[in-house]
Design goal:
The complex is a heterodimer of chains A (about 170) and B (about 100). Chain A is mainly α and about 170 residues long. Chain A is built from six helices and no strands. In chain A, helix 1 packs antiparallel against helix 2, helix 2 runs antiparallel to helix 3 and helix 5 crosses helix 6. In chain B, about 75% of the residues lie in helices and about 0% in strands. The chains are: A mainly alpha (about 170), B mainly alpha (about 100).
Amino acid sequence: MIALFWICALVAIASGIWTISSRQPVHSVVGLIVNFAALAVLFLTLNADFLAMMQIIIYAGAILVLFLFVIALLTIGAQPIEQGPGRLAFQAAPSVVAGLAALLVMSAGLRVAWSQSASAPVLDLGSVATFGQQLLTTHVFAFEVTAFILLIAIVGVILMAGRKELRF
Amino acid sequence: MPQVPLNLYLELSAVLFIIGVIGFLLRRNPITMLMAIELMWNAGNLAFIAFARNFIDMSGQVFAFLVITVAAAEAAIALAIVVMVFRRRENADVDDISVMRG
């Protein structure tokens, strides 16, 4: 279990760095897919079977395909971004330093707060039956709010990216 | 089979979140910045699910599911904005997009 965790953690970190460091957006999408797959395996080790499936289906299957469509449609004839130094190039080094300082603070806090080991495994914690029962009874209000958020997102996307004659 | 302690998952979540933050600050392509945001969503999800596993409580997993849904809505809206920016301008460097109503 611990070996699987370390393999997936290293794959996730390496693919995350690949995602943010590659110049081509398509390469970033490939790195992000690898990252999501490693995270899905980590979800499986945490008894979250249903969420591991959702991670693959929704993230790798739907959201990243959306990214790929936008990249393929928009950037094919456009001039490449990030050629040469930008206007705010002096912000690069401070942002890396600030990020690493934030990581130091977070990991120090985690080391103080959460040092006990995990409890015994529960077999049906994240199964589809348990998950659905919790989602539709205890958390049904959050579930309905989610549906409303998706409706607002659909309306907003149609308004913004729809045909020009539909502009209000 | 020895269990992985919770703080390892939380450390990994913190590292992935910081990778997303640094990517968001460093990159100038709006699509790559959105992917850095997706990295941050997933780091948060990993922490939620690790806590749900530790406390044997399904609320963390349900909330991670809601986070996935909100991330999908966010990606759709942000990509629509990127489509509009690319339609109006040749160069979509976010350092140059400082004026609204383009």
